[in-house]
């Protein structure tokens, strides 16, 4: 099989993810090379992402390369990928998902929860979803913007730059970069709900590229694909972008019952109001759960909170 060209950002985490895909393809008899592409989100690091206009801050330039034929597969963190893909592109595979939870990291010993942070403490995050939920949970904390790649953000907390006491990050990113020792607490998804698709990779291809799609099929994890399909369906049904304060989490049921459940949440940016709803996931049509949860959230005022 001719080697595939994998398009990726150049951050340590993005490169880890692309290298993982390359190794997985190799295990199934394939080969690939990495093509590093700089995105708008990488270039503009001075402002919180939700203050930037448009969508696809970490994906558009890679998708352009895919459409132009410069690469064969775009390797994305799925939470960064807009739910509406450009014409001619499709998801070729969703590999087994990492831990989807958010985590707390802090330089202060003995703190193992958000509740343990002292009033007025500074907590950093680059996500409007996290900002809104923290303001709801702990309006006494000072939330400050925190951009940069994962190791940079961890270093800023550990060195106390700007008197930063703690930060919120994704568990999967820390684990992939062997920084799990920095995790003070893995947060209950019903306390601080993660982003739709968090912890999963999305391998995007040209819809008419049968060779790439066939090569990626062994990497597909059906359970992960169903879960993220439900979560992304919720985001799409609410009309929210990747930086909207929309959260989602799948509970796969106890004892292997298979009765998974999708939870969705929308939080006012100032943290004054938070609404949560859920629906059972039908394995045959997981996207239907996202539509159902979106309907329940809109009935509670989600459109108003999202400025619709």
Q: Portion of residues in helices? A: 25-40%
Corresponding CATH architecture of the largest domain: 3-Layer(aba) Sandwich
**How do the SSEs run, as a string of H and E?**
EHEHHEEEEHEHEHEEHHEEEHH
The end-to-end distance, rounded to whole angstroms, is 48 Å
Question: What can you see in these coordinates?
Answer:
This protein has 308 residues and is of the alpha/beta class. It folds into three domains: 4-95 and 200-220, D-Maltodextrin-Binding Protein, domain 2, CATH 3.40.190; 102-186, D-Maltodextrin-Binding Protein, domain 2 (3-Layer(aba) Sandwich); 235-303, Porphobilinogen deaminase, C-terminal domain (Double Stranded RNA Binding Domain, 2-Layer Sandwich). It contains ten helices and 13 strands. It has helices at 12-27, 40-43, 60-68, 128-137, 150-158, 171-176, 210-216, 222-238, 287-299, 302-305, and strands at residues 4-8, 32-36, 73-77, 89-93, 102-106, 122-125, 142-145, 164-170, 183-186, 201-206, 246-251, 261-267, 274-280. The strands form three sheets. Strands 2-1-3-10-4 form a five-stranded mixed β-sheet, sandwiched between helices. The protein has a five-stranded mixed β-sheet with strand order 7-6-8-5-9, with helices on both faces. Strands 11-12-13 form a three-stranded antiparallel β-sheet. A hairpin with a 6-residue loop joins strand 12 and strand 13. Helix 8 (222-238) packs parallel to helix 9 (287-299). The radius of gyration is 19 Å and the shape is globular. The termini are far apart.
């Amino acid at each position: 099989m001719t080697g595939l060209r994998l398009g990726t950002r150049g951050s340590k985490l993005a490169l880890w993810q692309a290298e993982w895909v390359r190794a997985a393809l190799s295990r199934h008899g394939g080969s690939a090379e990495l093509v590093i592409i700089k995105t708008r989100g990488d270039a503009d690091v001075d402002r919180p992402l939700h203050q930037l206009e448009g969508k696809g801050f970490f994906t558009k330039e890679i998708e352009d390369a895919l459409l132009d034929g410069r690469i064969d597969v775009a390797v994305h963190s799925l939470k960064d990928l807009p739910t509406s893909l450009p014409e001619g592109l499709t998801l070729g595979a969703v590999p087994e998902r990492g831990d989807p939870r958010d985590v707390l990291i802090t330089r202060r010993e003995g703190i193992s929860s958000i509740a343990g942070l002292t009033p007025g403490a500074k907590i950093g995050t680059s996500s409007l979803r996290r900002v809104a939920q923290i303001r709801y949970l702990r309006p006494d904390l000072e939330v400050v913007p925190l951009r940069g790649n994962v190791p940079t953000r961890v270093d800023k907390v550990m060195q106390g730059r700007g008197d930063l006491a703690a930060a919120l990050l994704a568990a999967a990113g820390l684990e992939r970069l062997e920084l799990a020792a920095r995790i003070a607490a893995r947060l209950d998804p019903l306390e601080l709900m993660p982003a739709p698709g968090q912890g999963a990779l999305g391998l995007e291809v040209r819809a008419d590229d049968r060779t790439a799609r066939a090569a990626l099929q062994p990497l597909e994890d059906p359970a992960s694909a169903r879960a993220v399909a439900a979560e992304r369906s919720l985001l799409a049904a609410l009309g929210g972008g990747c930086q909207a304060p929309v959260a989602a989490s799948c509970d796969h049921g106890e004892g292997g019952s298979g009765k998974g459940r999708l939870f969705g949440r929308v939080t006012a940016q100032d943290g004054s109001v938070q609404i949560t709803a859920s629906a059972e996931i039908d394995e045959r049509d997981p996207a239907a759960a996202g539509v159902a949860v979106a309907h329940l959230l809109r009935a509670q005022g989600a459109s108003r909170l999202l400025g619709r």
